[in-house]
Every structure is written in structure tokens, then in C-alpha cells.
């Protein structure tokens, strides 16, 4: 058994002192590092050792780099998703704008075609014409009337004929300073004098309750009218000038024991599609609605002109 006095008298080895141990270890490691650097720089002895150590250290480096790599991947995914969402929104907006432009281009192209048709039609018309635009229709399905954007300020008058590029549409029944109301030829209260273009036979074409076709009134059963005949304005009534296309005969029905034919015709004007129309000015007298009586002098002038 060792006494306490003996323990206190045992001397401590100075090599285990903390300060001296760290200094010696640092000095030893520094010298070893310098020696290895020198040997590696001058000789190829440590090349294989470095390769072996790199294989051993590679998993440690990969593990050490994992947090940073995962963080970068998450940031990339989030930013990519956000960027894709923004890009998708921009593309959708651009697609919508382009579709609107395409629709507008198609509309302008169709309007250009209609304007060319009107231009070609107006060259055939001897009278003065003004192009108007349809701005409204009557909401009552039994009334076939429209509103155009020309009125008293443009010289429009009641009874003035209205045409589109393919035929007669109707006539003005009411005017105001900026617009006018027009009754279409298919309205049940509309009447228009026509003649068969093939043989000149005259009749009255009336609108029907359907509002889509015309019917010739009081045509005798002996009249020479056939399916497919072209009906044009006859000039009677001093409302419509002579020779404008009105309709095409679609049905001729002879009723046994009935003195008149039942004749239906389809209007040539695109009543439900035309937006640009023409107002025809026939003469100054009719513009102001003054039906002056014929005098002997005017009769002589008319006979001389004929």
C-alpha cells in the first residue's frame, strides 16, 4: 500500500506538460509537412499515395458537399418553376393578343372584300351612291328593319333605296340628323315593283310573315314565270331605279281552280350578313320628295330624250 506522502513525492515527467506537448506536436507536424512537400515536388514517390488517399477522401468530400448541392438544386427547381409559370403566363397573354390580331385581320380582310364588292357594284350604278354602315337591327323578330349610320346631314331622305353588293335590301322609312331607319324587302309590310328579267313581266313583290322570302302578288295563272327567273326592279313607283337585282324565283305553284299563281322568291341581298350598304340618290327631285307634275314641255323633253 502506498502512502500519501509517497504519491506527493513522485516527480511528473515534463514531456506530458500541456504546453510543451502542443508545441512539440506542431513542430513535428510542420517539419513533416515541409519534408513531404519537398519530396512531392522533387520526386514522384508520393503520386500513388495521393491517388489512394483521393479515393479514400472522395466519399467524405461528396458528403461534405451534399448540403450545398441540395440547396442549389432546390433553389434551381423553385426558380425554374417560378420562371416557367411567368413565361407560361406571358406566352398565354401573347397568344391571346395574337389571336385577337388574327381575328381583327380576318375581319379587316372580309371588310376589304365587301368594300371591293361595293366598289364594283357602285361602278354599275349610274346614280350617286353613299356607303353606309349597319349599326342596329330591330329586336322584334316579326319586324325586319335596320338602322344605318347616315341621316339628314348626309342627304338621306325617306323612300331612298338601299342596296348591298348583291341586290336591293330595302328603303329608308325614317331619318334623323345622324342615322336612318330602313325597312327590308322581306318585311311583311314591304312592297317593291319588280319585273322578270327574262321577259319583262311586271309584278309586285311583297315580304312574307317568315321574313326570309318574297311573294309575288296577284300573278295570273297564265303568266310566263319560271323557277330560277331573276327579278329586277321595274322602276314603277319612282322609288327604285330600273334594273337592280332583287330576288330569284324559287317556287312557282299553280292551284287548280285558282286564277293566280303562288310564287316565292329568295332575296339576292345578304340581308342578315351585309354590314356595309349603299344609299342610292336617284335624282334631285326625289331627294327632296317633290313629285312635280309633268307639263307639256317636260313631256316633249322626255319624248325627245327617248
Characteristics:
306 residues; 25% strand; 6-stranded antiparallel beta barrel; Thrombin, subunit H; alpha+beta; 5 helices; 12 strands
Account of the protein in words:
- With 306 residues, the protein is α+β, with helices and mostly antiparallel strands.
- It folds into two domains: 19-124; 128-286, Thrombin, subunit H (Beta Barrel).
- 40% of the residues lie in helices and 25% in strands.
- It is built from five helices and twelve strands.
- The protein has helices spanning 4-8, 18-42, 47-124, 284-287, 296-305; strands at residues 128-137, 145-148, 161-163, 168-175, 180-184, 191-196, 202-207, 214-220, 230-233, 245-254, 260-267, 276-281.
- The strands form two sheets. A six-stranded antiparallel β-barrel has the order 1-2-5-4-3-12.
- Strand 7 (202-207) and strand 8 (214-220) form a beta hairpin.
- The protein is rod-shaped, with a radius of gyration of 50 Å.
- The model is unreliable at 1-10, 12-16 and 284-306 (pLDDT under 50).
CATH class category name of the largest domain:
Mainly Beta
**Average pLDDT taken over every residue:** 78
Report the portion of residues in β strands: 25-35%
Point out poorly predicted stretches: 1-10, 12-16, 284-306
* Coarse shape: rod-shaped
Distance between the ends: 163 Å
Task: From the alpha carbons, calculate the radius of gyration and give it in angstroms.
Answer: 50 Å
Determine the CATH topology of the largest domain: Thrombin, subunit H
As laid out across the biggest beta sheet, the strand order is 1-2-5-4-3-12
Order of helices and strands: HHHEEEEEEEEEEEEHH
Amino acid at each position: 500500500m502506498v502512502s500519501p506522502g509517497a504519491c506527493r513525492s513522485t516527480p511528473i515527467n515534463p514531456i506530458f506538460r500541456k504546453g510543451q506537448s502542443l508545441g512539440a506536436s506542431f513542430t513535428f507536424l510542420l517539419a513533416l509537412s515541409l519534408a513531404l512537400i519537398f519530396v512531392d515536388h522533387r520526386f514522384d514517390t508520393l503520386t500513388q499515395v495521393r491517388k489512394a488517399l483521393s479515393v479514400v477522401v472522395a466519399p467524405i468530400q461528396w458528403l461534405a458537399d451534399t448540403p450545398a448541392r441540395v440547396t442549389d438544386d432546390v433553389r434551381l427547381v423553385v426558380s425554374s418553376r417560378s420562371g416557367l409559370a411567368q413565361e407560361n403566363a406571358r406566352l398565354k397573354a401573347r397568344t391571346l393578343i395574337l389571336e385577337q390580331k388574327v381575328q381583327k385581320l380576318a375581319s379587316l380582310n372580309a371588310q376589304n372584300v365587301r368594300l371591293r364588292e361595293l366598289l364594283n357594284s357602285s361602278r354599275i350604278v349610274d346614280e350617286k351612291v353613299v356607303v353606309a354602315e349597319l349599326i342596329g337591327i330591330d329586336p322584334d323578330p316579326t319586324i325586319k328593319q335596320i338602322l344605318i349610320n347616315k341621316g339628314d346631314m348626309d342627304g338621306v331622305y325617306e323612300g331612298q333605296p338601299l342596296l348591298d353588293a348583291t341586290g336591293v335590301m330595302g328603303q329608308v322609312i325614317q331619318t334623323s340628323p345622324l342615322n336612318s331607319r330602313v325597312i327590308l324587302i322581306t318585311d311583311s309590310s314591304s312592297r317593291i315593283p319588280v319585273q322578270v328579267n327574262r321577259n319583262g313581266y311586271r309584278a309586285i313583290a311583297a315580304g312574307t310573315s317568315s321574313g326570309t322570302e318574297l311573294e309575288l302578288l296577284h300573278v295570273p295563272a297564265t303568266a310566263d314565270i319560271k323557277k330560277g327567273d331573276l327579278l329586277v326592279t321595274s322602276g314603277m313607283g319612282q322609288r327604285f331605279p330600273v334594273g337592280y337585282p332583287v330576288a330569284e324565283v324559287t317556287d312557282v305553284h299553280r292551284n287548280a281552280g285558282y286564277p293566280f299563281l303562288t310564287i316565292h322568291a329568295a332575296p339576292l341581298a345578304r340581308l342578315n350578313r351585309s354590314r356595309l350598304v349603299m344609299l342610292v340618290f336617284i335624282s334631285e327631285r326625289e331627294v327632296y320628295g317633290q313629285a312635280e307634275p309633268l307639263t307639256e314641255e317636260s313631256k316633249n323633253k322626255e319624248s325627245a330624250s327617248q
